[in-house]
Automatic annotation (TrEMBL):
Residue numbers spanned by region Disordered: 1-127
GO biological process: protein K48-linked deubiquitination; proteolysis
Name by which UniProt lists this protein: ubiquitinyl hydrolase 1
Naturally occurring in which organism (per UniProt): Panicum miliaceum
Its EC number(s): 3.4.19.12
Taxon lineage: Eukaryota, Viridiplantae, Streptophyta, Embryophyta, Tracheophyta
């Protein structure tokens, strides 16, 4: 009887400690247990079971490692005003606690996990109502339609079940493609270039990848058979991608993980059944957040919560996690016009600010490098620094924007591709596709110097003073008469500057190569569109085909012709003026190594590799 009362008292104390409230009265002192030799087998089993429960409770109370624990607030660099930061325990204490949890006789580890889950029913912190209102307005604005909410409430982060596209995330709804495509780009980074390190929670740390990049560039060789990827490898790549993005948004210091109340292992579908999130109040009732300063702790909790992110609320929860990791005040400061919602009306597409947040950690609205000074203390914000995965857009080929070198030349050969209404992913298996020959490097250097002086918003012209600075920065020495011709109009246009460079010998800083060896590049690149499309599965002639839904993966062969000579450039201009089409003359100058094909994706590729000629087998690659 005494043992039963003692068990009940211990369980009550454990429950109260898990709820974050101290006992109403001091815990009564207990006599020491009798020596082990004097214990009966039944008493020993009961004692070991109590030890297991106590160990489980201690594990739940570790502040940094588990969202079931009540977070401990402390000061931290750059915390948003609405969130508390969790401080991890010292490594020595954590190690002692780990050693103090041997599996006792007679009780399985599965039973221990059940104790943990039952005792930690609700996980994380609630958002204050005013913060939930601010978050909702920031994402959806006022008067959001039910159709848009349905798009964002029914899109999980899930891999394709189709063997040919098993490395890709499937999209069923039109709105969240910006989130899915950007996460997909990071997933490919880990699957392609860090596949041997997926068990290391620190592989997403920039210091780790910095030390490994040269090794992978020189030795990595991959096939294009993605069907061999295991579920475990894909899941770990996804978790690493999520950890990297969230810590990027948190300036490398923290990550906030959003979850749903009362969702535990094996209960996700049951909890989400019938759950509706149509307002800030709905969101505030069910949303829980946990803050981590350790990448390992964030990795562990995200790995445990993968079923939640695979569920229909997965894309929305990850977007919320990224926004809270950055901090709502900082998000609004990043934007040029914070009055507009991040999810654009009327179709519910992810804005460029969302994509940029996931790519560079800041919700800036533009894709050029750095800031553009407009005068009078006003400026437009672009990409602040180098990025891991990049971005290309069809809009640049239409002269509607200018993508800077930070996004065009990322650390890894992976790009999110934007069209007017959709985001997809372009990637190569070999980082060497980004290497440039001598003249390519020189052109890139000159173009960067020119763009740095371009205050027209990507219009392609600069002032005479800015032109003089470009010449100094790039060691270009024009003859005095040519220099005078270029400066006569008071502005210098890039196309005229480039024509002059093609005539100037490279020994004077120009692009004319008397040897004629200006290089040709050939490589293979892949395009992935996560929108599920109906395709036939089986032999149509035998009548056994059935339509299935799967994403689209296209393999493209790309050839970048050698640099043009001045004669070829002028011939192209003449041909374009007579035929009315410059593209035909461009392709006519390309080496006849393959049959050229055209699609809007090719226009995007040419913003990265000018004059590229592409071909593929099968369906035309689609960016919509």
């Amino acid at each position: 009887m005494a043992d039963r009362e003692e068990d009940e008292e211990l369980q009550m104390a454990l429950r109260m400690s898990l709820q974050g409230s101290p006992p109403a009265q001091p815990e009564p002192k207990r006599s020491k247990p009798p020596p082990p030799a004097a214990e009966s087998p039944e008493a020993e089993a009961r004692r070991k079971q109590r030890e297991l429960m106590a160990a489980a409770a201690e594990k739940r109370l570790r502040a940094a490692g588990s969202p079931a624990a009540v977070p401990v607030a402390r000061s931290s660099p750059q915390p948003p005003p609405q969130l508390a930061v969790v401080e991890p325990p010292p490594a020595s204490e954590a190690a002692k606690e780990e050693k103090a949890e041997p599996e006792p006789t007679g009780v399985s580890m599965e039973e221990a996990k059940e104790v943990e889950v039952e005792e930690g029913e609700e996980e994380g912190e609630e958002l204050p109502p005013d913060v939930a209102e601010k978050l909702w307005a920031m994402v959806f604005g006022g008067g959001v339609s039910k159709a848009v909410l349905a798009q964002w409430s029914n899109q999980g982060i899930r891999f394709s079940s189709d063997p040919e596209t098993t490395m890709g995330l499937v999209q069923h709804e039109g709105g969240p493609c910006g989130v899915l495509a950007t996460v997909q780009a990071y997933v490919l980074k880990y699957l392609l270039f860090f596949s041997d390190d997926l068990s290391n929670p620190e592989v997403s740390n920039p210091l780790y990848t910095l030390g490994q990049r040269r090794f992978y560039q020189s030795s990595f060789a991959a096939g294009d058979d993605f069907s061999s990827l295991t579920d475990d490898r894909k899941t770990r790549a996804l978790v690493h991608a999520m950890v990297e993005i969230l810590f990027l948004c948190g300036t490398g210091k923290r990550a906030v993980v959003a979850s749903i109340a009362r969702v535990n292992r094996g209960k996700t579908e049951a909890v989400l059944e019938g759950l509706s999130v149509e307002s800030a109040m709905d969101l505030q009732k069910v949303l829980r957040t946990s803050t981590f300063t350790s990448r390992k702790d964030a990795f562990d909790i995200l790995l445990a919560n993968i079923p939640l992110f695979e569920s229909r609320l997965g894309a929305m929860l990850f977007l919320i996690s990224a926004l809270l990791s950055r901090g709502l005040e900082y998000i609004q400061a990043d934007r040029d016009d914070p009055s507009q919602p991040l999810v654009t009306a009327p179709f519910g597409h992810a804005s460029q600010e969302i994509v940029n947040l996931l790519l560079c950690g800041e919700a800036v609205p533009n894709v050029f490098d750095g800031k553009m000074d407009l005068g009078g203390g006003m400026s437009l914000k672009g990409i602040p620094n180098n990025v891991e995965v990049g971005f290309l857009t069809l809009l640049e080929s239409l002269n509607l924007c200018k993508v800077g070198q930070y996004l065009k030349c990322p650390k890894w050969p992976i790009w999110v591709v934007g069209s007017e209404s959709h985001y997809t992913v372009l990637f190569a298996l070999n980082p060497n596709v980004q290497e440039e020959n001598e003249l390519e490097e020189r052109e890139s250097r000159i173009r960067r110097a020119f763009d740095a002086q371009d205050q027209s918003g990507g219009g392609g012209f600069i002032s005479v003073e800015g032109f003089q600075q470009v010449l100094r920065d790039t060691d270009i020495n024009f003859p005095s008469d040519k220099l005078e011709d270029l400066c006569n109009a008071g502005i210098i246009v890039w196309s005229e500057f480039w024509q002059a460079l093609l005539q100037l010998d490279k020994r004077a800083g120009g692009m004319k190569d008397p040897t004629g060896r200006m290089g040709k590049k050939q490589f293979t690149i892949f395009h992935f569109n996560g929108i599920a499309k109906s395709v036939l599965n089986g032999n149509a002639s035998a009548g056994g085909s059935v339509p299935i839904q799967r994403p689209r993966l296209c393999k493209l062969n790309v050839t970048v012709p050698p640099r043009w000579t001045q004669d070829e450039y002028l011939a192209d201009v003449v041909s374009a003026s007579t035929s009315g089409s410059k593209d035909d003359s461009i392709l006519s100058l390309a080496p006849p190594v393959q049959t050229s094909q055209h699609a809007p994706l090719v226009d995007c590729i040419r913003t990265r590799w000018p004059r590229a000629v592409c071909s593929w087998a099968g369906d035309v690659p689609s960016i919509v």
